[in-house]
Amino acid sequence: MRSILARNRSANLRLWIVAGTCLLGLATSAVANFEPMFSPTLEIKKAAAAIKIDGSVDDAEWQNAGRADSFVERYPGDNTEPEVRTETFVTYDDHNLYIGFICHDDPAEIRASMTQRDQFHGDDAVGVLIDTYGDAAWGYELYVNPYGIQKDFLWSSISGDDPGFDLIWESAGRITQSGYQVEIAVPFASMRFPNKDVQSWKVDFRRNRPRDSYKEYSWAAYDRNEKCIPCQFGTFNGISNVRPGRGFEIMPTVVANQSGSLRIPGDPGSPFDNADPEGEISVGAKYSVSSDITVEGSYNPDFSQVEADAAQIDVNTTIALFYPERRPFFQEGSDIFRTIFNSFYTRTVNDPQFAVKLTGRMNRLSVGFLSARDENTPYIIPLEERSIIRNTGESYVNVLRASRTFGGDNHLGFIVTDRRMEPEGSGTIVAVDGDLRLSRNYSVVGQYVKSHTKEPIDSSLSVGLENVKFDHDKYNAALDGESYSGDAFVCQFRRRARHLNFTVNYDHVAPSYRTETGYDPWSDYRNLTVYSNYIFYFEKGIFERISPALYADRRWNFDSEEKWTHINLGFDSNLKFAQTYFSARYGTGKESWGGIQFDNLWSAEMNIGSRLSDQVGYDLYFNRGRGVARWLLVEGNETSLFGALNLKPIDRLIIEPTISYARSTNSETGEELYSGYIARARVLYQANRELSLRFVVQFNDFSRKWEFDPLLTYRVSTFSLFYIGSTYDYDDLAVNPADPDNWKLTSRQFFMKLQYLFRT
Q: CB atoms < 10 A from the CB of 663, how many?
């Protein structure tokens, strides 16, 4: 009996050894068989019927779809095997391109927010990147979070991602027991692609998975020594007999508002006057002349922003501030008009009565034309050490832009802008620009601009400017009808690679250069700038990457007088817990302001931020140094702080408080030169995909001002919406700083907007 048992035990042991060896062999084989796919190809078949977009990829219509599941981790890993599996399905019918994702994961770890479109951050998400012409010039980027919320961009080789771009498409998502699923339908009517029978598009699929590290997976593997990302996409084949979008869109808008303000600004005893309610109707229209060219126009447009700009600390700034564009009419197609010099800054078209825009993307050629009549024109006068802003009333603006890509990742282009002011005055620029790729790592980028200015004549706007001279005292800053020309030039030599990156930059702006449609707040300078960093990647330890960096710049005016020199050393790093980043810089320098030389300047700064969980994230910035109080022309010991929190108590409530602080004291006497802070909180509640409530409160300690801005929005689709809101501004009208606070409501506005898009 013992012998039989012994033989059985021996046989069982051999079976376990054989089974274990087989399992180990299978596991080893699975690891060994993982192979990144460079430039993969996917064949697509037509669906038997239209697919209902409900977030379920289990429908029968998906069974014959093309399937891609060989994803790689492209960040922080370098084409390594992902921790979780992703499956993508692609098919089409006569009207739509359909894409489905099955994302395997622990549903308890999935991060998702119920927000308005384009407003989720730090969520799990899937995306598709489509270059329909396959020339790496521009392409669509469509992302969806697990709740089906959309975010879209238009990428271009000149300007990168354009977050203001909005495409009309459909999406849905749902969290399942094994992860989450997403369905996407992109109408061919919304897209631009070659008008031919069989399509071949460059495409990549993405999956973002934020945990302790922010992980990004992709269908295509990428070479970090190749700077052209779209050149490494995969390829769709098999889409046939579909046609790009053509049609007509009309978008009527009804706007109403009622405002009030103090009768005498700044007078605490002044009565508060309420104006009569006002209402306007505006009409916007868009017509696709062909699959490549679109004309868009708007009469009496409502170009107001739904949300006011966040206040910036400008107490030690001598130039006009730059604010991002948030108005939809100017956001769409903004990549076409963008250049290295910001030769068309759309915020200079301040209050147009009408506007017309033509944009075209014809294979490798992009063109844009914009014309508008502006009723309140900002006029920027750039000088050597500061800029001056005036409002010159009505003007006509015309902008023409064209650029063409060629070869692999190269482009050449030009831009012409012209502003005609009433009753007289003009500003015109003509510019050429290009990006030439020398090799897979090196490129040269540049732009040359020529300007001609004829000042308007307005003595009421010239008070105090008659004695402000420039260009060797040949001209003054007064608006007295002077005419002059100038030029601007920038050239950059760049290296982009896996480890070593650098940019060598030279640029100049002549004393008499001026653009009334761009953002050029300085003049009379020559800059030489060098930036370089080296990236170390780590598979073990707490760091994902560390990147030491060097930044140095020097500025002269056109008389060869040195204006400043700075040298900065520092590093950036990403850590493997809580998506933490950390960076530090130390720099020294010297500057000349108002003819006074300041030689002992230094600065030390630190940035740190984390996403501690799906509910809590933070960002902190600290700077300490010795700088110049530019309006007082003295050295100051400067301190600045910035802090931001991102709080999400529940998946549909986001609270975003921020605070900025700045202080400077005289480095010799200790006297306070300036001190203050700006505190802001933005609260967003999303009841469902359509209905949301946003509330912004802001306090500016420098101007002693409170702002309260509630807004209720109901969004039917991308461009069809209703919102109603108000603004309240309270100012401290104490006569003397030592007096007790005297807060008064100084201005208030109620507003309403109803907008609906009709599309044929």
A: 17
From the list 229, 342, 245, 236, the residue with the least C-alpha distance to 293 is 245
Across the range 442-467, mean pLDDT stands at 91
138-144 and 125-131 beta bridge pairing:
antiparallel
Whole-number percent of the chain with pLDDT over 70: 91
User: CA–CA separation, 137 vs 157, rounded Å?
Assistant: 5
CB 637 within 8 A of CB 667: yes
DSSP secondary structure string for all residues of 304-369: --SSPPPP---TT--S--------HHHHTTHHHH--SS----GGGS-SEEEEEEEEEEETTEEEEE
How far is the CA of 380 from the CAs of 33, 92, 399, in angstroms?
62, 51, 18
Tens of pLDDT, residue by residue over 535-547, are 999 988 999 999 9
Res. 14 pLDDT band, cuts 50 70 90: very low
DSSP reduced 3-state for 88: strand
Q: 34-240 has which CATH code?
A: 2.60.40.1190
Length of the chain counted residue by residue: 760
The whole-angstrom separation of Cα 84 and Cα 208 is: 12
Instruction: Indicate the domain borders of the chain.
Output: 1-33, 34-240, 317-530
Distance in angstroms (rounded) separating the CA atoms of residues 334 and 348: 14
Predicted model pTM? 0.84
pLDDT of 509: 95
